[in-house]
Specification:
It contains 13 helices and ten strands. It has 451 residues and is an alpha+beta fold. The chain has three domains: 198 residues, no CATH class; 74 residues, Roll (Nuclear Transport Factor 2, Chain: A), CATH 3.10.450; 102 residues, no CATH class. An eight-stranded antiparallel β-sheet has the order 4-3-2-1-7-8-9-10. Strand 8 and strand 9 form a beta hairpin. Helix 1 packs parallel to helix 12 and helix 6 packs across helix 7. The longest helix is centred in the first third of the chain and has 38 residues. Pfam families: PepSY_TM. Keywords: Membrane, Transmembrane, Transmembrane helix.
Length: 451
């Protein structure tokens, strides 16, 4: 008579841990994979924002170079306002020969971007501000296109992406098998092919997913906003010795111009000597040029008697990031801040964000992240195909609960720690636990085979 021996206690414990991790890897994938695909598509495109806009909006952004001499910024401003009446709020000089100047004008219809030839003042075209193709892609990527509350999904997706990678690494870890670790077995008709493709691609992309998730957190609705406000606790978020003791307004830098993430809440100084004669835009641009702002900088114009001229530039080279505020009456700098003035935390955050955008290391940065985006999409498609082939007919196919529920509770305790750090992730964890309870209670513990 043959008797079946029961698995040893260590074997049962290992099996329970595997089931618990597998179950939550499944839930993380269910929640995150749609976001990963959409973020990879939009993010991969946004990596080439300059190239996209240079091609798609070439009629607006480029013009034939007529000479080495350009007309004055004030003449360009006048040409733009003649076509689009309103209050000029920003002026962007040509970054290089053959580029147009851009004037942003506040009108009753909203802000309009006017593109003007710097050689003869001819207006090349007009469009609503921040509606270029690259800006639309950026709004889609950050989910701002769908309203302010959609940004909260960024934090949830980023937090669960980290969980997805951690649990995926545990499931991938070799346990005596030779195939499916660094190679793909079978053919597309077989489930094992999609399992191996998912695992191997995930192994390659996993570290990058964590990096992109962490560096994408600054744009999240709760964590990012709170950390940003904390980082700007000392007005500009850099050592107090760098600042000049000048009156500060309640306006923030992000209210007047696009800025780096760490400076969104930076307060703007006020111009003294209200009532004196203001300097011209040409004089302000000349001052910024003398101070050595990198090409491509934008000038925000004063719109109130105590307003300032603000020159700001955020090039790919982080060391050349700079924000300068000029007194609109004397033309003297009230505040001059560069990347070197940020604290260690601010510099680390800006480096992460800049690299996330594919800017820090030039074309190599773009190509590597594009390959990562493609790998993430391939990994996600493989996961969907694997699930489809293995799911029981008519059921979701949630992996079975571990026999020892204490293993499951221990895993939840570790997940809860991440929920404390990222509040929205913690809230979504509670929702997922509630759904899991419903699946277990009313759907039974009928999972799918572990092989």
């Amino acid at each position: 008579m043959t008797t079946l021996s029961r698995p040893s206690r260590p074997a049962r414990a290992a099996g329970d841990l595997y089931r618990a991790v597998w179950r939550w890897h499944f839930y993380a994938g269910l929640l995150v994979l749609p976001f990963l695909i959409s973020l990879s598509l939009s993010g991969g495109a946004y990596l080439f924002k300059d190239e996209i806009d240079g091609w798609y909006h070439s009629d607006l952004k480029h013009v034939a170079q007529m000479s080495d001499v350009t007309i004055s910024p004030d003449a360009i401003l006048a040409s733009a306002q003649e076509v689009v009446p309103g209050t000029a709020v920003k002026f962007t000089p040509p970054a290089k020969a053959g580029d147009t100047a851009e004037v942003t004008i506040a009108t009753d219809r909203g802000r309009m971007a006017v593109y003007v030839s710097p050689y003869d003042g001819l207006v090349q075209g007009v469009m609503p501000d921040r509606t270029t193709l690259s800006w639309t892609i950026r709004q889609l990527h950050s989910l701002k296109y769908f309203g302010p509350y959609a940004r909260y999904a960024i934090e949830i997706a980023a937090g669960w992406s980290v969980l997805l990678v951690a649990t995926g690494l545990f499931l991938w870890w070799p346990r005596g098998q030779k195939g499916g670790v660094l190679s793909v077995r079978g053919t597309p008709q077989r489930r094992v092919f999609w399992r191996d493709l998912h695992a191997v691609t995930g192994l390659v992309a996993g570290g990058f997913i964590v990096f992109l998730a962490v560096t994408g957190m600054p744009w999240s609705g709760v964590w990012g906003a709170n950390v940003n406000e904390w980082a700007n606790g000392s007005n500009f978020g850099y050592p107090s010795g760098v600042r000049v003791d000048v009156p500060m307004s309640d306006r923030k830098l992000n209210d007047i111009a696009q800025t780096s993430w760490s400076l969104e809440h930076a307060r703007i100084p006020e111009s003294p000597n209200v009532g004196a004669s203001s300097i011209t835009l040409e004089q302000a641009v000349a001052a910024f040029d003398r101070m050595g702002l990198a090409p491509g900088y934008a000038v925000s114009l004063p719109v109130t008697p105590d307003g300032v001229f603000t020159g700001s530039v955020y090039p790919d080279d982080l060391s050349r990031q700079r924000v300068v505020h000029l007194d609109q009456y004397s033309g003297k700098p009230l505040l001059d801040m560069s990347y070197g003035d940020y604290g260690p935390g601010g510099r680390a955050l800006e480096w992460g964000i800049n690299t996330h955008l594919g800017q820090t290391y030039g074309l190599a940065n773009q190509i590597v992240l594009l390959a990562v985006c493609m790998a993430i999409i391939l990994m996600s498609v493989a996961a969907a195909a694997m699930w489809w082939k293995r799911r029981p007919a008519g059921r979701l196919g949630v992996p079975p609960m571990p026999q020892n529920r204490r293993v499951f509770r221990g895993l939840i305790a570790m997940l809860a720690l991440g929920g404390v750090i990222f509040p929205l992730v913690g809230l979504s964890l509670i929702v997922m636990l509630s759904l899991d309870f419903c699946v277990t209670r009313w759907g039974g513990n009928r999972g799918i085979a572990a092989t």
